[in-house]
Amino acid sequence: MTSCKPTKSEHQRKPDWLKIKLNTNEDYKGLKKLMRDNNLHTVCEEAKCPNIHECWGSRRTATFMILGAVCTRACRFCAVKTGLPNELDLAEPERVADSVVIMNLKHVVVTAVARDDLKDGGSEVFAETIRAIRRKNPFTTIEVLPSDMGGIEQNIRNIMDAKPDILNHNIETVRRLTPRVRARAKYDRSLELLRRAKEMQPSIPTKSSLMLGLGETYEEILEVMDDLRANNVDIMTIGQYLQPTKKHLPVLKYYSPAEFGELRKIAMSKGFSHCEAGPLVRSSYHADEQVNAAAKQRQAQGEELLATKE
Predict the structure, then answer these.
(1) Under 8 Å between Cβ of 204 and 197
(2) Across 147-240, where does the E strand assignment appear?
(3) pTM of the predicted model as reported, rounded to 2 decimal places
């Protein structure tokens, strides 16, 4: 692992491995039209995800963003609009479920803006979206990616009682940088949410994501891994932070594919069931593969338990 200190050239231009091949084929165009026709939002668009052309154009997958397109927080890494959100759209869960049917998705990710203006943090809409998808497409696996919802236990329980296939909540950065990077969020509160979710539904895999390039040290990266495992997190994704606009935090280091490969090996050695790590990896990247890996691990654990009883 090379030094995490930035060089002057790293501030000036992105390395070659961050070049993205655009794919605006008919699948991409059709999915974009479907989202607009149904008045739906995706984090793929709102957060300027670098993988949108691969996911929409090749894999035909998307991450739905519910609870509107305006966030109550102003995290310094995120491109989602900040301000005063609109009233809740109670028909949104059904529209998301209908779109999942039309797209015939095998796996769907549902995330949301932070809604600190709501007592339940939007957890009831999350739960109803899960239930709506289950009713209309029962064979689709569902991953949810909520905010910390104020750390209120009942808000977490609302979601877990609806039984998503994966509960994802992003730690985003290391402990030291959290106050500067994540507005209103707390490092330990995120860990607590992940721990509580696992306690409420032990059979449901939990997942978290870390972005690199904001000034973290190698030791701090390993500390995040250890903290996640200490709270029984099953799946981890590690990606490169990319500055969405000049108003956001600058990139202090670009990690190479080899460095990400090394971190993936370390994560797996620490006991994660699955780890995606790479310059363009985001929290929902190849999420369909992650749920399959988690299902295989649960099956293996069940077989081991059965063998022990015998």
Answers:
(1) yes
(2) 166-168, 206-212, 235-240
(3) 0.80
